[in-house]
């Protein structure tokens, strides 16, 4: 068995992560901002689609680098998980900030603050989700 996750496994991970995240964050963001669930639902869904595209490439590259450095996905500790989640969210923020500004008609600073809320939520969520996913769907070491 390969030390990398298969494409179907990676797709399952990606879809579960995004669906659960959407169900959790859209109502919460609507409640916190006072904006309608429809507007925030569309925004979060758009960010989710962007995140799925970003995630596929980012995770593949991160895994390849980790393997090249002698690591293995089954031994990924909290330090590597924090680095992984932080780099992922930083890249996603740079990609999605203009969308938030445009859709909610916010100044950049306010959009960035909202995005920071999304980042905090998704950083914690990503750490917990990926740890649980690895426990539920483990890879064997070669």
Number of helices: 4
* Strand fraction: under 5%
Question: What is the molecular shape?
Answer: elongated
Radius of gyration: 16 Å
What class do helices, strands and sheet pairing give? mainly alpha
The beta-strand count equals 0
Instruction: Tell me about the largest β-sheet.
Output: none
Ends distance: 6 Å
How helical, in percent, are the residues?
A: over 70%
Low-confidence stretches: none
Structure notes:
This protein starts with 6 loop residues before the first helix and ends in a 6-residue tail after the last helix. It has four helices and no strands. Helix 1 packs across helix 4, helix 2 (37-68) packs antiparallel against helix 3 (78-104) and helix 3 runs antiparallel to helix 4 (108-136). The radius of gyration is 16 Å and the shape is elongated. With 142 residues, the protein is mostly helical. The longest helix is centred in the middle third of the chain and has 32 residues, at 37-68. The chain has helices at residues 7-33, 37-68, 78-104, 108-136. The mean pLDDT is 87.
